[in-house]
Write a structure and sequence with these properties.
- There is one protein chain.
- By secondary structure, the chain is α/β, with parallel strands linked by helices.
- It has a single domain, classed as Alpha-Beta Barrel (TIM Barrel), CATH 3.20.20.
- The protein is about 45% helix and about 10% strand.
- The strands form 3 sheets. Strands 2-3-4-5-6-8-10 form a 7-stranded parallel sheet.
- Helix 5 packs parallel to helix 6, helix 6 runs parallel beside helix 8 and helix 9 packs parallel to helix 10.
- It binds S-adenosyl-L-homocysteine (SAH) and iron/sulfur cluster.
- The site of iron/sulfur cluster has 9 residues, from loops.
């Protein structure tokens, strides 16, 4: 007899086979059953709460050349920029005034001493300007063990480094073949981030060329096995000026990539009920209410873009990125009502630390 989604969801644990089944759903009703179930798991563990972090994309200088990314070093069309400390502090101030409990500092990857030292100092400066509870998430790529430690000690509490894919062979297909883009180094960095003490976030790109459903099922099992605290994952979106663009005709249609991303979020919520899962901007690029749909599938974090408008057009990781012509005010104005519309509340009085991290700390 064929197994139904309801039967699978009744089980205590999902096997790899079950995960593959759930990710492969094509039937509308089955898809809805999965999403509903994941949402009920989120309601029980996190509640109907959404945690906000303000995203500051402070520089697009990048020494890497990932084959999917619009700001890769090999794209000469990009106007490179770096926000000054003052501009970053003003943006932090804006975040605080709008009751954000934390920010995410993101940029292309740079490893020079000037860069890493600047970040350490910047963390200290921001700490001085905010209350002691204010949360920093860094998303600054691969760094040395010492650098991760220095940034943690300076006061950053969280770090995001997507593994992109947990399959080494696929990793090699979507990155140039050189030491700067080495799967084992990336994995080691993720472990070093955990060891430094950070709430550790990672994630994957969904719907990449050459990627299979089995790869994605293994990605979810990887996240669980790594005991990750936070996840940001979203659909792959093409960028015209990248080498992977030539595979555009082999991709899943956008709508399917979107629904597959929702099912990835849903299955992850079932596998890891107490982690933080971001509903990413890439979802919103495909469907205007895409991030809200991500929340309904089990995600619980939103990262509104606070990057000043004049820089946004230069931080295009993929084509058709939303809100590029806007300022931060426009983006967050309607946020609260959009979240309320789907029956959720922004948790302004909660720092939104990963419950999984807290539990991990108690056990260790
Ligand atoms: N340089 C840092 C942070 C900025 S890139 C780093 O790479 O870790 C942040 C994320 O954007 C990457 O991890 C990748 O998963 C995502 N990204 C880049 N290009 C993308 C694309 N074309 N489609 C979807 N996500 C993309
Ligand atoms: Fe640079 Fe990150 Fe883009 Fe890779 S994904 S090219 S490291 S910004």
């Amino acid at each position: 007899m064929n197994q139904s989604v309801i039967d699978i969801l009744k089980q205590q644990e999902l096997s790899r086979k079950d995960i593959i089944y759930l990710l492969s759903i094509t039937d509308r009703t089955e898809h809805e059953q999965l999403i509903k179930h994941a949402y009920s798991v989120k309601e029980q563990t996190i509640g109907r709460n959404v945690y906000l972090r303000g995203l500051i994309e402070f520089s697009n200088h990048c020494k890497k050349n990932c084959l999917y990314c619009g700001i890769r070093s090999g794209n000469p069309k990009v106007n490179r920029y770096a926000m000054t400390d003052e501009e970053i502090l003003n943006t932090v101030d804006f975040a605080v005034k709008n009751r954000f409990t934390g920010i995410v500092l993101q940029s292309g990857e740079q490893q020079s001493y000037e860069f890493t030292n600047r970040i350490t100092k910047l963390i200290l400066k921001i700490k001085q300007a905010t209350n002691p509870e204010f949360r920093f998430t860094l998303s600054l790529g691969e760094q040395s063990k010492e650098t991760y430690k220095a940034w943690f000690e300076a006061g950053a509490q969280r770090y995001l480094l997507r593994i992109e894919t947990s399959n080494e062979e696929l990793y090699r297909k979507i990155h140039p073949a050189n030491k700067l883009h080495d799967f084992k180094t990336r994995l080691q960095c993720l472990e070093n981030i955990q060891k430094a003490g950070f709430q550790t976030g990672t994630g994957v790109i969904i719907g990449l060329p050459f990627q299979t459903i089995e790869n994605l099922a293994d990605d979810l099992l990887f996240l669980k096995q790594m005991s990750i605290d936070m996840v940001g994952m979203g659909p792959y979106l093409e960028h015209t000026d990248t080498p992977l663009f030539e595979y555009k005709d082999s991709l899943l249609p956008l709508n399917n990539r979107f629904n597959l991303s929702l099912r990835m979020i849903a299955v992850l919520r079932i596998l890891m009920p107490n982690i933080n899962i971001a509903s990413t901007t890439a979802l919103q690029s495909i469907v205007p209410m895409g991030r809200e749909q991500g929340l309904k599938a089990g995600a619980n974090v939103l990262m509104p873009n606070l990057t000043p408008g004049k820089y946004r057009g230069n931080y295009l990781l993929y084509d058709n990125k939303p809100c590029v012509d806007e300022e931060a005010d426009d983006c967050i104005d309607c946020l609260s009502s959009r979240v309320q519309m789907i029956g959720e509340e922004i948790a302004y009085n909660d720092l939104g630390d990963s419950k999984h991290y807290k539990k991990r700390q108690q056990i260790e």
